[in-house]
Design goal:
268 residues, alpha/beta, two-stranded parallel sheet, 8 strands, 44% helix
């Protein structure tokens, strides 16, 4: 059966990741989303985050379905299984620095155990890996874009007072500063999408697992204003217009070091 997300992605759409990719390097965005250039590798951070998400999805799925809460060892086993499968793909995983599959597996096990110990338990889980698709209005013309904004909420929970929260899971090397919290486009996109998918009161909670020497869980509750959401629409409008006219150019900077399309980009 084709997943709902796959169906949504079969239509004209864009994602926050695509918008962020263009802002970071338009040429990298073009290779990934427009030219469909085969990547030379996958980043270790992306593979690691995917394995963490698998374990946390298991945790919240059990709570949603009324099954017993998975123990720390069960979450660790889920992470380990997903992490090892990351290396079965034909596209190699590129690890940073002195990291090895074994050292990152150990770190991931530590992190999911920290999550199990410290994560606040929600009153009720009403959705896990919930896809959404919303119409986005061009702020200049007032007409909707042909492309829809498609994304996935990691989890949607209901608190005891009946209000809702969208949970987003991240891994990071350090705690997030105020600047990053205030300008994360994904948070703004979620607060824009929430009322359009029946969650008018929803806020966003970031649960960031820190890959520090002493693994930790940092929980953030960033807020967004109407001005922030208007700014997001302006950014989306500018990026989509630039993509439509083929405004692609390389940004030769630190992202090239790990870019999965650096080789084809340099060769071109």
């Amino acid at each position: 059966m084709i997943s709902t997300l796959a169906v949504l992605r079969a239509e004209q759409h864009f994602s926050v990741s695509a918008i962020t990719s263009y802002l970071l390097c338009p040429m990298s965005c073009a290779h990934r989303y427009i030219y469909k250039t085969p990547p030379t590798h996958r980043s270790g951070a992306l593979a690691f985050g995917s394995a963490i998400h698998s374990a946390l999805a298991l945790f919240y799925s059990c709570l949603m379905d009324g099954r017993p809460e998975p123990g720390a060892e069960e979450l660790a086993a889920s992470f380990t299984d997903s992490w090892r499968r990351q290396f079965d793909d034909d596209i190699p995983v590129l690890l940073d620095g002195k990291a090895t599959p074994g050292s990152l597996e150990d770190k991931g096990v530590e992190l999911v155990k920290v999550f199990h110990e410290q994560a606040p338990r929600p009153h009720k889980v009403i959705g896990v890996e919930e896809p959404f698709s919303i119409e986005v209005i061009d702020p200049q013309t007032g007409t909707p874009f042909a492309e829809r904004l498609v994304g996935v909420f990691d989890a949607v929970v209901e608190d005891a007072d009946g209000t809702h929260r969208i949970l987003e899971h991240k891994t990071a090397a350090r705690r997030w500063g105020r600047t990053r919290l205030d300008h994360d486009l994904q948070v703004t996109a979620y607060t824009t999408a929430a009322p359009l998918v029946g969650l008018p009161d929803a806020t966003v909670t970031l649960q960031v697992l820190l890959k520090t020497k002493e693994p930790a869980l940092a929980v953030y509750s960033p807020t967004r204003t109407d001005r922030d959401r208007q700014d997001l629409l302006q950014v989306i409008s500018g990026v989509l217009c630039a993509i439509k006219v083929g405004a692609f150019y390389p940004v030769r900077d630190w992202p090239c070091q790990s870019c999965a399309h650096a080789g084809p980009c340099m060769a071109g």
